Amino acid sequence: MNSRRRGILTVISGFSGSGKGTVTRELISRYKDNYWLSVSATTRQAREGEAHGVHYFFVSDERFKEMIAQDEFLEYAEFVSHSYGTPRKSVEEHLAAGQDVILEIEQQGAFQVKKAMPEAILIFLVPPSIEELERRLRGRGTETEAQIRARLEQAAVESEYMELFDYLIVNDQVDHCVEDIHHLIRTEGSRTYYMKEKMIDLQEGLQAYRKEA
Amino acid sequence: MNSRRRGILTVISGFSGSGKGTVTRELISRYKDNYWLSVSATTRQAREGEAHGVHYFFVSDERFKEMIAQDEFLEYAEFVSHSYGTPRKSVEEHLAAGQDVILEIEQQGAFQVKKAMPEAILIFLVPPSIEELERRLRGRGTETEAQIRARLEQAAVESEYMELFDYLIVNDQVDHCVEDIHHLIRTEGSRTYYMKEKMIDLQEGLQAYRKEA
Q1: Inside any domain, residue A50
Q2: A201 has a chain B CB within 8 A of its CB
Q3: Is B199 on the interface with A (CB under 8 A)?
Q4: Which residues of B touch A205 (CB under 8 A)?
Q5: How far from the centroid of its chain's Cα atoms is residue B205's Cα?
Q6: Is A82 part of a structural domain of the chain?
Q7: Per-residue pLDDT tens for B48-84?
Q8: Considering just the CA atoms, what is the radius of gyration of chain B in Å?
């Protein structure tokens, strides 16, 4: 890898219940020197154990609206109860410094990122089967049957747009899934897009062998 | 990996002296169940130990011209002394059967393949530095200084087109380089382009959760 290259932006998305949160946390914890996880802004209240600037930037509704107005979000989503968004500036600073950045966001947000930064890698995480997805959602034991049904209806909608992602990763075992994503990002670093410095070095080294026009 | 998917076509190219032949042979020998190496047609004479249909298909000038006329080549190149070409049919048959195919060919041929099959992965192998490239070319001990210079002049020309490849792989150690290419092709298998069957399975599984329009 060329240390001077621009960082790679990877978006991890997936169905509710696909395990994208677990996989992202494990990726970051296993390869903490490789990746920087973007911290989202949200208008919801901090829960027990959540720290401002670590888990989220907790902001007021007013401040969130102001951030939208000033184009401070790379992507954002407004829901009835609260909103979430990815601050653009910190992502761009880390990429410019050559750090690989991870965003864990919803499907619509992933498409907003791709539009703003076409070089971003979009990964969609899926369970091995829908039966397994149902098992995982029910296994949480924290939601009503109606809430689970709403999540599955949302998955049905999202399943229509999976092909707009670059990669589809089946989360069968968290461990394998994390390694697949890590290899995928390492591989992306070998794209000629990220190897410009190396190409220039080689072209310069071959200068003496250029035939005169 | 979905065993029913179409095979992945990977083109390995690189400067003369980049080690593409060694890397390709090692990749095929290490992962013989994963890859099928395309056999080229050539008009040159078979050398000691070369078998028809194994190392090359040895054909007459007349037959080669006929193959061009009948569009039987995926790519080909005609030189003063002899010609080389990749028969299209066997490549397409292996891909259709879900086998991953490797072509080891020159730069111009790589671009012909990309034009015919845009989903092909183009890999360009380079040495760590031009000093190392010179060392490797001289180290062979089989060529005159004029022949070595001609190869470096050819590399200078090819270096202008490296960015048209998908990936640039630095061949520092054959072992690492082979693993990089193997991971790269495995990663490619997770592209949504190759995951259509899985996406259809998931969409069908979610059918029951579709809201009526």
Answers
A1: no
A2: yes
A3: yes
A4: 129-131, 133
A5: 38
A6: no
A7: 999 999 989 999 999 999 999 999 999 999 887 899 9
A8: 20
